[in-house]
């Protein structure tokens, strides 16, 4: 199902879909079982230019837009959500803050490797007491001469502990103004004394995605590691999250489609009481609803991506897309698992992995409840 895509966009989607089927899918089960992110797959994504899709050519990118990035993420999410989120976070949370808010030195030093997939970066926002309420940030950074001294902790940080992770951009309280916290963003290179990447989480899903808690104990970095203007961190990361919600909606749509494709194939091949499961009206209705969810989710994220790329306001559309697509992924994973019966409970089948993986799509980069708040605000209800 394609919706108002250009010939170039169709070619990109087909190319990444083939890569997903031939390279990503065959390793997905073993990567999930061993909780291992394949750096070879990451390198191949870099060679294909996927990490540079939405960036201009003069900084090492592919000269595309956010629509192009999300098409790639959707194609990957269809077969392996861990690989899809590695790309999404590598671009939206790793490279984009440096491109958007970094100074010329930061951009020239880090973007070439980030956009080529030779390096990854994380974005340290969430804390034990600051999830949806990001304004409750407790990590602090104070200037001591020409250095920032950072203390605090972060949790659930993607791409923060891979062999090619270069740095993490963290939000920290750097002062106060008018009784409100002044929040800034600061780049902390991996290996900096006092900066500890704690052991990886034992997660319900996304087993092959790299995710760690982080600790900062008197971490000293140069004052020029400030990303953007001092005190602009809160505003800046909100804009990053708005874009990220479109990307997560695309990933969710891919997951929902992957469940649909697997369930259709299984229903056609599974014999129940002498006939194919696909001939049973109950199964047909279930599969029809699954397809409708995929179509609706794709419409929603395409709309949000087009608005973003046109320079139009898109925050509400991004929230609608993430809400719609996250629900579609979770509902389709549940229905696909039911179609598969006992086999759906086995991790070797993709629908079982999607069932575990998809729940986070209703939580990460803004919970379902946060999306509802954004939509309610658009209705003038706040």
Can you describe this structure?
This protein has about 375 residues and is α+β, with helices and mostly antiparallel strands. The mean pLDDT is about 95. The protein has ten helices and ten strands. Strands 1-4-5-8 form a four-stranded mixed beta sheet.
Q: Please give the number of β-strands.
A: 10
Structural class: alpha+beta
Helical region count? 10
The biggest beta sheet reads: 4 strands, mixed
Q: How does the SSE layout of this entry go?
A:
Elements: H1 7-34, H2 39-47, H3 66-77, H4 81-101, H5 104-116, E1 120-124, E2 140-144, E3 147-158, E4 165-177, E5 180-189, E6 195-197, E7 211-222, E8 226-227, H6 233-269, E9 271-272, E10 275-276, H7 281-309, H8 315-340, H9 350-357, H10 368-378
Parallel strand pairs: 1-4
Antiparallel strand pairs: 2-3, 3-7, 4-5, 5-8, 6-7, 9-10
Helix pairs in contact: 1-3, 3-4, 3-6, 4-5, 4-6, 6-7, 6-8, 7-8, 8-9, 8-10
Give descriptors for this structure.
382 residues; 10 helices
Summarize the model shown:
It is built from ten helices and ten strands. It has 382 residues and is of the alpha+beta class. The model has no long low-confidence stretch (mean pLDDT 95).
């Amino acid at each position: 199902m394609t919706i108002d895509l250009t010939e170039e966009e169709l070619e990109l989607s087909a190319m990444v879909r083939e890569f997903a089927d031939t390279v990503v899918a065959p390793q997905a089960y073993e990567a999930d079982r061993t909780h291992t992110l394949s750096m070879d797959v990451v390198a191949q994504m870099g060679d294909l230019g996927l990490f540079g899709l939405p960036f201009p050519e003069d900084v090492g990118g592919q000269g595309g837009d956010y629509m192009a990035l999300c098409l790639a993420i959707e194609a990957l999410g269809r077969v392996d959500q861990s690989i899809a989120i590695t790309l999404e976070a590598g671009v939206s949370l790793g490279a984009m803050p440096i491109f958007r808010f970094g100074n010329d030195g930061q951009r020239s030093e880090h973007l070439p490797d980030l956009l080529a997939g030779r390096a990854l970066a994380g974005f340290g926002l969430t804390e034990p007491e600051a999830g949806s309420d990001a304004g409750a940030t407790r990590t602090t950074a104070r200037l001591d001469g020409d250095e920032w001294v950072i203390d605090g902790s972060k949790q659930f940080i993607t791409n923060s502990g891979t062999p090619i992770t270069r740095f993490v951009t963290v939000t920290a309280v750097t002062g106060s103004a008018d009784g409100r916290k002044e929040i800034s963003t600061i780049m902390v290179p991996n290996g900096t004394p006092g900066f500890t990447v704690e052991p990886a989480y034992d997660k319900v899903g996304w087993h092959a995605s790299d995710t760690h808690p982080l600790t900062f104990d008197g971490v000293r970095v140069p004052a020029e590691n400030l990303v953007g203007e001092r005190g602009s961190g809160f505003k800046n990361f909100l804009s990053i999250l708005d874009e990220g919600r479109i990307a997560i909606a695309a990933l969710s749509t891919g997951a929902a489609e992957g469940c649909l494709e697997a369930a259709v194939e299984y229903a056609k091949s599974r014999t129940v009481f002498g006939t194919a499961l696909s001939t049973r009206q109950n199964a047909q209705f279930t599969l029809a609803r699954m397809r409708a969810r995929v179509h609706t989710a794709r419409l929603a994220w395409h709309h949000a991506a087009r608005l973003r790329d046109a320079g139009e306001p898109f925050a509400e559309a991004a929230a609608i897309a993430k809400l719609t697509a996250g629900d579609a992924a979770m509902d389709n994973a549940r229905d696909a698992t039911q179609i598969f019966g006992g086999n759906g409970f086995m991790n070797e089948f993709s629908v079982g992995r999607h069932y575990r993986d998809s729940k986070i799509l209703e939580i990460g980069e803004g919970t379902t409840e946060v999306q509802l708040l954004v939509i309610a605000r658009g209705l003038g209800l706040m």
